């Protein structure tokens, strides 16, 4: 099993941010009952874990440590090389490469949605410049946030492979740290704000929240402990520091500019609330009620 443990470490840095994390950012635009969103997120995380676990197990079973090291130093496509060896033909390696390319395209799409909506939500709460909260008059999408994310997405590939690895690794560390902070916030809010409206209430929240904090904390440590297989290098730590400094700048500027509005929570009527006000209404009428509530909130924000 030694070669399997080595393969897990070798592949750990290649497990990038899952597309499932974009679900929560796009939750306001998902046309399903709010209670189902929590279940959808849990299911997507479970499926992602199962998929990547099988990939790691399969590669570790097919290739020995020497073959993994050789693949990393030559093609860099360990999974594709494992498929070629398993089926005895290079055609299967090409199939994996094509599938990986398709996965990258869908990941770009989901991160485009998730990144722009995260930026929009922060602007909506006055945590970044308000210009990023502007919505398209027809499609109701965060147009300025989409433009910024789109420009950065187009420029990024020209940074080169080495810098892209630095950006991805530093970004993954930031995501893991965000997971841990969100888990802590979840526990704190369930204790301090037990009556806060929650379309989806996590059962056994103390156990779930505690395990989330522990596991996400372990993920953060993987990037910090030397020899773990995912340790950040100096350039990546510099990027983390630069992003943190940028966050401090936005905090200071927006705190001074927006004062008490900084970090404010904006609540929009939920499907359940609309249904309770209009028990005999169909989905079309409920959508009209919700759209009207959103428009009222946006008009108050721009007033």
SSE string: HHHHHHHHHHHH
Rounded to the nearest angstrom, the radius of gyration is 22 Å
Q: Which shape, going by the Cα principal axes?
A: globular
Number of strands: 0
Beta-strand proportion: under 5%
Write up what this structure looks like:
The chain has twelve helices and no strands. The protein has helices at residues 2-12, 22-25, 34-62, 65-73, 78-87, 91-124, 143-155, 161-192, 205-222, 234-258, 271-277, 283-302. The termini are far apart. By secondary structure, the protein is mostly helical. Mean pLDDT is 79; it is low at 1-20. Helices cover 70% and strands 0% of the residues.
Strands, helices and their partners?
Layout: H1 2-12, H2 22-25, H3 34-62, H4 65-73, H5 78-87, H6 91-124, H7 143-155, H8 161-192, H9 205-222, H10 234-258, H11 271-277, H12 283-302
Helix pairs in contact: 1-3, 3-5, 5-6, 6-7, 8-9, 8-10
Condensed summary:
With 303 residues, this protein is mainly α. It has helices at 2-12, 22-25, 34-62, 65-73, 78-87, 91-124, 143-155, 161-192, 205-222, 234-258, 271-277, 283-302.
């Amino acid at each position: 099993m030694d070669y399997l443990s080595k393969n897990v470490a070798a592949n750990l840095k290649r497990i990038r941010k899952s597309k499932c994390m974009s679900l929560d950012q796009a939750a306001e635009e998902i046309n399903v009952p709010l209670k189902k969103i929590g279940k959808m997120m849990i299911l997507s995380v479970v499926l992602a874990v199962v998929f990547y676990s099988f990939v790691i197990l399969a590669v570790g079973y097919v290739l020995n440590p020497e073959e993994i090291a050789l693949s990393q130093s030559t093609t860099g496509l360990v999974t594709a090389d494992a498929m070629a060896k398993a089926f005895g033909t290079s055609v299967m390696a090409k199939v994996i490469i094509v599938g990986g390319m398709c996965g990258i395209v869908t990941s770009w799409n989901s991160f485009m949605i998730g990144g722009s909506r995260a930026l929009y939500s922060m602007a909506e709460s006055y945590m970044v410049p308000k210009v990023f909260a502007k919505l398209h008059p027809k499609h109701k999408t965060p147009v300025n946030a989409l433009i910024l994310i789109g420009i950065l997405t187009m420029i990024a590939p020209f940074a080169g492979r080495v810098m892209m690895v630095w950006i991805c690794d530093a970004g993954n560390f930031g995501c893991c740290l965000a997971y841990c902070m969100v888990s802590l916030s979840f526990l704190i809010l369930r204790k301090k704000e037990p009556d806060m409206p929650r379309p989806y209430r996590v059962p056994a929240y103390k156990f779930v929240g505690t395990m989330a904090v522990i596991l996400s904390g372990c993920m953060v440590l993987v990037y910090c402990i030397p020899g773990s297989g995912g340790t950040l290098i100096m350039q990546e730590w510099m990027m983390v520091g630069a992003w943190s400094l940028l966050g401090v700048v936005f905090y200071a500027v927006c705190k001074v500019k927006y004062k008490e509005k900084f970090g404010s929570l904006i609540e929009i009527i939920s499907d359940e609330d609309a249904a309770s006000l209009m028990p005999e209404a169909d989905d079309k009428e409920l959508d009209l009620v919700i759209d009207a509530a959103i428009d009222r909130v946006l008009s108050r924000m721009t007033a």
